[in-house]
Task: inverse folding
């Protein structure tokens, strides 16, 4: 019996941070053995908002793949590829676009959020491109290209998967077939990590810790993490539950004993916040040591990374060409 298929992707935003690692990649690493897994870098999706800033796009793709490999995605187990290297996706995107009612994409809540962010960044008059409107259809093409059974994503992407299911069902209805599966979202069970300032961790908010940051930079960044704002001196009794960021990080990176000890030292006023964050920084570095070592290996062996990608591209295209052949038959485009 063959394993069910999962597909997931990330936009090529450059070096990834701990939010990506804890929230998504760790989950993929666990799932990759249970499923026939396809993971790709969505460089076309990156283009929907960065079409005028493409200088770094190629390097960004490599950075993402290096972070994945460092985090434990195994290229012998998973198929790791680049979206734009599989042109069949673009063709499927056309067919799916034809069967997708315009109001399905217009009411996509994730797209609405993206439009809002774009307007705050680039002014009220910024136009949403036709390509950005097509974001959920292209995402459906990514997923349906492998005729996936499930899509491991964070909660913010679930609305998109709902559209994919609707599109798959509609395609099947229109062409009188049961060819496409209706892929289910596989919600990550991983912990959400906030940024150093207590807001959502994000590259553009400059509140993130990168997988690829050095130990020194990590330690320095951790020193800026928000703590219990009411605590001014080391001897003030602290309130871990009101420690907005540092204690939350302890709960992610420490073991039970360390978390309990931190709570005790904080509440009794025997550990100052600076000391506490120094210990925390060391803890985070310890947890990431192996990943970072692997990343340095790939950084110094870029040809190996490129080989991994072209092997993945080839495997992805093998599957994609079978699927697109059948789709052409169904749509009568031959
Ligand atoms: N929209 C996803 C994100 O922003 C990336 C993505 C593109 C994706 N295509 C996909 C995720 C297909 C899952 C499946 O992270
Ligand atoms: Fe937070 Fe640690 Fe300071 Fe307590 S001692 S407030 S847990 S940083």
Result:
């Amino acid at each position: 019996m063959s394993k069910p298929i999962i597909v997931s992707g990330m936009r090529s935003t450059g070096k990834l941070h701990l939010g990506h690692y804890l929230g998504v990649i760790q989950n993929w690493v666990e799932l990759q053995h249970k499923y026939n897994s396809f993971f790709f870098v969505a460089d076309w999706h990156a283009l929907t908002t960065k079409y005028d800033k493409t200088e770094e796009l190629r390097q960004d793709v490599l950075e993402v793949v290096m972070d994945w490999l460092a985090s434990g995605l195994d290229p012998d187990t998973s198929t790791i590829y680049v979206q734009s290297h599989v042109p069949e996706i673009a063709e499927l995107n056309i067919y799916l676009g034809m069967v997708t009612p315009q109001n399905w994409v217009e009411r996509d809540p994730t797209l609405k959020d993206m439009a809002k962010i774009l307007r705050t960044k680039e002014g009220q008059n910024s136009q949403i491109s036709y390509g950005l409107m097509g974001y959920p259809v292209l995402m459906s093409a990514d997923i349906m290209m492998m005729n996936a059974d499930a899509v491991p994503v964070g909660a913010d992407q679930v609305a998109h998967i709902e559209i994919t299911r609707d599109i798959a069902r509609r395609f099947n209805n229109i062409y009188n077939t049961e060819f496409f599966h209706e892929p289910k979202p596989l919600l990550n069970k991983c912990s959400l990590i906030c940024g150093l300032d207590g807001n959502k961790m994000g590259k553009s908010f400059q509140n993130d810790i990168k997988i690829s940051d050095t130990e020194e930079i990590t330690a320095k960044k951790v020193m800026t993490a928000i703590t219990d704002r009411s605590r001014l001196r080391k001897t003030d009794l602290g309130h871990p539950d009101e420690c907005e960021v540092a204690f939350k990080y302890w709960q992610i990176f420490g073991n039970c004993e360390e978390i309990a000890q931190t709570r005790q030292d904080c509440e009794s006023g025997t550990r100052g916040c600076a000391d506490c964050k120094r210990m925390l920084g060391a803890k985070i570095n310890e947890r990431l040591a192996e990943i970072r070592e692997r990343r340095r290996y790939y950084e110094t062996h870029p040809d190996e990374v490129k080989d991994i990608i072209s092997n993945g591209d080839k495997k992805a295209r093998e599957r994609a060409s079978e699927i697109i052949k059948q789709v052409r038959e169904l749509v009568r485009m031959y």
Summary: The domain at 5-194+302-331 is CATH 3.40.50.620 (Rossmann fold).
